[in-house]
Amino acid sequence: MAVPEKILREVDALRQQIEHHNRLYHSQDAPEIPDADFDSLLRRLEELETHYQLLDEASPSQRVGGEAIAGFTQVRHEIAMLSLSKVFDEADLHSFESRLKKRLETESAIQYSCEPKVDGIAVSLLYRDGVLERAATRGDGVTGEDITHNVRTISSIPLQLVPKKKNTVVEIRGEIFLDKDGFKKLNETSEKEGGKIFVNPRNTAAGAIRQLDPKRAAKIPLKMYCYSVGLVEGIELPKTLSEIFTLIEKWGLPVNPDRSVENGIDACLKYCLALLEKRNDLSYEIDGAVLKVDDSELQQQLGNNARSPRWAMAYKFPAEEKSTTVLDVEFQVGRTGTITPVARLEPVFVGGVTVSNTTLHNMDEIERLGLKIGNRVIVRRAGDVIPKVVKVIPDDGIESKLEKRAILIPKTCPACGSAVEKDGEVLYRCSGGIICPAQRKESIKHFASRSAMDIEGLGNKLIELLVDKEIISSVADIYTLTVEQLASLERMGEKSATNIVSAIEKSKQTTLPRFLFALGIREVGEATALQLATHFGILESIIAADLESLVQVSDVGPIMAEHIQVFFRNEDNIGLIKLLQGCGVTWPSIEPGHDDSAKPLQGETYVLTGSLEQMPRSEAKAKLIALGAKVAGSVSKNTSCVVAGPGAGSKLLKAEELGIKTLDEGEFIALLDDLSS
Ligand code: IVH
C-alpha cells in the first residue's frame, strides 16, 4: 500500500517524540508531559503502524514485542571488554598517578574523567547506521551473550540514535543497573503478590538481562549509564572522553549525571570523597569511583595490561558496616578435623548482600572480640570478601533481647561424636579421622575441587548428598560411581549424570602436583605441591623422602616436612594412593630438579604484596615457581621484582627505595602470559 507522505512524517515525528519523552522520564527523571499524554502518543503510533503496515524493529512501539528466545547466542567482542584495576586508599591513588607520569615521561598535571562506579552489569550496545543492532553481556571479556531482546525493553536505551547516520558503526559500553527505588518497588509488588523477594539490585538486574523471555525482563525497571566507546567506524570522535560523553548524550544515550572532569589526582581524591559522602543519597548503588585519563591520545600511549587499561583506575569505597545480633554459634568440622566456630546472625543487608552467617575463625578470635551468643555486633563486608564480625557493641539499652550465653568449644565432634582435642595454641580438632563424616565430606570436596582433580559437576552439594546416602565414603569411591547411581538421585537427569561420569573419567589423567595437592596433606597447598613434584619428580621419591631431604625443598620447613612424613608413613594413606592408581589415576613423571636452568625466571626472587584481585595469591606463587622463580616474603637487595597489588604498602615503598623493579597486577599477568606461551 502506498502510504501518504503526511502519514510517514507523522509516524517519524511520533517515534522521535516518544523516544524524547522516554529519555526525559527514564534517564533524567524529568518528565515534561503527563503519563496519559505519553500513552496517547504511543497509542496513535501503534494505530498508524498497524494500519499502514509500518512495523519496524527500531520503533519505540516494539520494545517488548519480541518472542522468548530458545537459548543465548554467543557474541565475540571485536575489542575485548577489559576490567579495571582497583585501589583502596589515597596512597595507592598517588602511586597510580606516579606510574602514569613515569610512563608518559611527563610532570604535567593529568586531566581525568571521574565517574561513579555503578554496581550493575557491563554491557555492549552495537549501533549500525544509528540503529540498535545488538546488545551483549561482557561475559569473559572476549565472548559474551546476546541479550538484545531484553535490552530493547529498557526505555532509556534508544533504539535509534539522533541523528541516524548512514555507514556508521558505533559500539557503546556501560553499566545496566536497577536503581534503589526500582528495587524497592519491585519487592513491594512482589511481596503483595506473594512472589519471591529479590536479594539485591545487582543480582536482580543480572537476572533480568539474562531472561529468555523479554516480557519478563520488561517487568524489571532497568536503567543504564554509558561509560565508554568500543568499536567505531565512519565517525570521528572528539579527543577526550568527557567530550565523547557530551556527544553521546546528544545522540540520546544515557550518561551518568554525577560524572566530573578533574585536574590532577588530588582533585580526583576530593571527587571520590565527596561521592562517598553522598553515596547513600544517590538513587543507584555504587561501590566506588572510576578515574580515567581524559585524553584519548594519552590513553593510547598508556595502553592496556592483559586485563585492564593502564589509564583507568577504580577507587573502591571502604567496606560497609551494619549492626546485627548473634543468634547462635555452631561448630563446623573441616577436612583435617579443625573445628571452626560459625556465627548464625540475624539476617542483615550489608555491602550488597544479605548475611546470615559468618566464620569466627577460631576460639581466640571469640575471646579477642569478647563475644557471647545474644550480643549485638558490627558486621563488615568489603567487595566480594567474606563478611566479618569486627566488634561487639557494648550494652547501650537497645541491646538484643536474647539471653547472653558464653561460647564454649564442644567436648565432642558435632558430626561424629569423637573427642575434640586441642591442637597447638588456638586450634581444636575432631579426633575421629576417617570415621568422621564431616571430615570425609570435606576431604572429598577438596579432592574434586578445581585446583585439585578438577572434576566438573561434582560440586559440594552433590558430594554431601552422596556421603549422606552412603553411596561414597572415600575419594576412591568417586571412581566407582555409575551413571545409574547418579541419575537415581533427586533432581539429577540422565544427561548431567553422564557428564559427571565423563568428568570423573577425564580427571584420571592428572599431574603429580595436582594429585599431591588433592591428597590434602596438612599445610601442603598448591605451591608446595608443585615444589615437591618438581623437586622429586616421582611420587615414590616423595613417599620415601626423609625429613632431611624434605626440608631441602624450598618452601618446606620442618613442621611441614613432619606433616608430609606422617602422611606417607600412614598405611591407610598408602593404601588409598594404590587404590586410586588401581582405578586408573595416572600422571606423567616430571624430570626432577635439574632442568631449572632452562626456566625463564630461574635465579630470580619475587615478592608478592598487596591484594591480588585477579588470581589467588597461591596461584600467582605456583605460577612463579613453575617458571623457576623463588617467592620470598620480604624485600631485600636480593629481590629481583616486587609484584604490588592494590593495598601494597611498606614492601612496595622499600622496593622503590632500593630501586627494585615493581609490577602492578596487570603487568604481572602480562608477564606470566608472555613467559608461559
Ligand atoms: S570503565 C575500560 N566505568 O566496573 C574499562 N566501568 O571492575 C572498562 N563499572 O566491568 C570499565 N561503573 O562493569 C567503567 N563508570 C564506569 C563503571 C564501570 C561500573 C564496572 C564495569 C566493569 C567493572 C570493572
What do these coordinates show?
By secondary structure, this protein is an alpha+beta fold. The protein folds into six domains: 5-62, Helix hairpin bin (Helix Hairpins); 111-306, DNA ligase/mRNA capping enzyme (D-amino Acid Aminotransferase, Chain A, domain 1); 319-431, OB fold (Dihydrolipoamide Acetyltransferase, E2P) (Beta Barrel); 433-507, DNA polymerase, domain 1; 512-582, Orthogonal Bundle (DNA polymerase, domain 1); 596-676, 3-Layer(aba) Sandwich (Rossmann fold), CATH 3.40.50. 36% of the residues lie in helices and 20% in strands. It is built from 24 helices and 22 strands. The strands form six sheets. The chain has a five-stranded mixed sheet with strand order 2-11-10-3-9. Strands 14-13-12-15-16 form a five-stranded antiparallel sheet. Helix 12 (437-448) packs antiparallel against helix 13 (460-468) and helix 16 (512-518) packs across helix 17 (526-536). The longest helix is centred in the first third of the chain and has 22 residues, at 5-26. The site of 2-(butylsulfanyl)adenosine has 15 residues, from strand 3, strand 8 and strand 11.
